[in-house]
Each structure stands twice: as C-alpha cells, then as structure tokens.
Design a protein that fits this description.
alpha/beta, TIM Barrel, 9 strands, 21% strand
C-alpha cells in the first residue's frame, strides 16, 4: 500500500522540523508561443531565504543524505498550493530522476492527483537506467502526469535522453535559446531540438525567453510553448507560497 504524504515526516528523524520559514515556492508561467497571453502551466521554483541557489541547497543536502526529504517537502508544498484553479492549467515540478525511487518522494507523489502535473526530470545527474526507474515513470504517466526533460541541451539532458525517455515535453535550455534571434548557428541548433522533439511526439518549450525577437524566431521554427521573463518573473503573481519548515544550518547539512 502506498505511503501517504502525511506519513512522510514519520519515516525517519527529520532534519527539517516544522518551525519557521526558510524557503518559498515561486511560480513562473509557461505560455503558448502563438498566444503568449495564454498561460498553459506554471512552474514551481524554490527560492531560499539565505539567498543561496537550489543547486547549493541540494548539493549540501545530498552530501548529508537528506536530499530526498528536502525535495519531498518542496514538492508537497507546491502540490498543496497550485497557483491556478483552472483544471486546464498544469503545474510543473522539478524532480531529480534518482529521487523518483526514494520512498519520501514517492509518498508525496502518491498522495496527490496528477492529472494536472508535469514532472520535469532535471539535468544535474545521469538518468537512472534501471527497470525500477522505467516502472516509476510509467506509473506517473498512467496516473495522468506528463513527463518533461528539463534544460535539454545542458548537463545530462540531451538528444539521447529525448530518444530514451520519449517525454511529452522537451524543455530547451536557455543557453540554446538566448541567441536564436541574432545568430544563425544558434537558430539552427534550436531547430534541431524542435525536429527531434517532433519525432518522438513531444511539445517543445523554450526556456529563458526575454526578448520579442526571440519569440518571433520561436514561432517561425514551430516551438510550441515558452517561458521566461518576457512573460513573467518567478516572483510575480500569483504570490509565492511559504514553506513552513526550518532546515539545519549549512554545517549540519553537510555533516560537519
């Protein structure tokens, strides 16, 4: 029987007791390229009160063996507080592929309906190749979730992963998108990702869109969706949601 999210904190002594506020979940819209005023989804983005990046926090948490707990707390907070009640507007969540097999993370995902959820598999670690990981992805899809490859073109996410995972969304990294309106090589690189995504039946999402000229190129190349400051900053409306829990200090996180 699946573990409920309410049981997550009882699974082991927690490094993140429920006192204080140390992080927020901000939301950034994902819009249609052809109709930029229409948001189709909102991405949950963690922001930490000490000003350090999510990469710093998760790196230290992994060293201490508490990254599954950190990720599960952030996921549960986002799932409990979707920014829109529109059933057609999805919530996109960044998930470390390895942690999809972690009991804490699985317990949270098992406790919520996933018909509006997009699971973004992050690029910071290699994708597991085990049968258990494949089964975990299938289970999410069977429950209505969509799969996305985050930051495709950076880190461990590339064309090989697109072919292997066959995601519903291919999110093209901002580094691929940034010069598409000023550089022919950048535009050709972006076009390549669009063609591969179409071959596997995936929608494309351009990340880091900041200029109207980029949006014009995205439309010309047939990119489906876009995300970036041109359409709204992560700290904008709807308001960020507080995470009511306090972590250990940095020294405790890294086990010093």
């Amino acid at each position: 029987m699946a573990t409920r999210a309410s049981d997550v904190r009882r699974m082991a002594p927690t490094a993140y007791p429920a006192v204080g506020t140390w992080a927020t979940i901000a939301w950034q819209p994902v819009v249609s390229v052809l109709s930029p005023r229409d948001a189709v989804a909102d991405e949950a983005l963690a922001r930490f009160s000490d000003g350090r990046s999510p990469l710093d926090w998760f790196g230290e948490a992994r060293a201490a063996g508490t990254d599954d707990e950190l990720e599960s707390i952030l996921l549960e907070t986002a799932l409990r507080n979707p920014p829109s009640k529109d059933p057609r507007r999805r919530v996109t969540l960044n998930v470390t592929p390895r942690l999809l097999l972690a009991p804490r993370v699985r317990a949270v995902l098992d406790s919520f309906a996933l018909e509006r959820v997009v699971i973004e598999l992050t690029e910071h670690e290699p994708m597991p190749s085990s049968p258990e990981f494949t089964a975990a992805l299938k289970s999410l899809v069977d429950r209505g979730a969509l799969l996305a490859l985050d930051d495709t073109g950076r880190g461990y996410t590339g064309l090989t992963q697109v072919a292997e995972v066959r995601p519903h969304w291919v999110k093209i990294d901002a580094g691929v998108v940034t010069d598409c309106d000023t550089d022919a090589v950048a535009r050709a690189s972006l076009s390549m990702y669009v063609r591969v995504a179409r071959r596997v039946g995936a929608l494309t999402v351009a990340e880091g869109v900041e200029r109207a000229g980029q949006l014009t190129v995205l439309a010309d190349l047939g990119v489906d969706l876009a995300q970036g400051w041109l359409f709204g900053a992560p700290q904008g409306a709807p308001p960020a949601v507080r995470v009511e829990a306090s972590p250990p200090g940095p020294a405790a996180v890294v086990g010093q």
